[in-house]
Design a protein that fits this description.
Blueprint lengths: L2 H5 L2 H5 L5 H11 L3 H21 L7 H10 L1
């Protein structure tokens, strides 16, 4: 299987959405493919950062300021 096919499955792999056979096939590929290892690392970093952003609450005044700029 070509790297594009594996890279397209990385998100599902991280989310535990692959079958055990697919996950094992991907793990085997990752053990010998530095390009796909890098893609997995980047995707993991992005997903971890995204999860951190979920915990950030915007200031209470933000909505009113944005609306004020839109209206005026």
């Amino acid at each position: 299987m070509h790297c594009d096919n594996f890279q397209n499955k990385l998100f599902d792999f991280l989310e535990g959405m692959l079958s055990e056979d697919e996950a094992e096939e991907l793990r085997e590929h990752l053990s010998s493919c530095s390009d796909c290892q890098h893609e997995l690392s980047v995707l993991t970093t992005v997903l971890n950062f995204e999860k951190l952003l979920d915990d950030v609450e915007p200031p209470s005044f933000l909505a009113s300021r944005v609306l004020a700029h839109i209206i005026h």
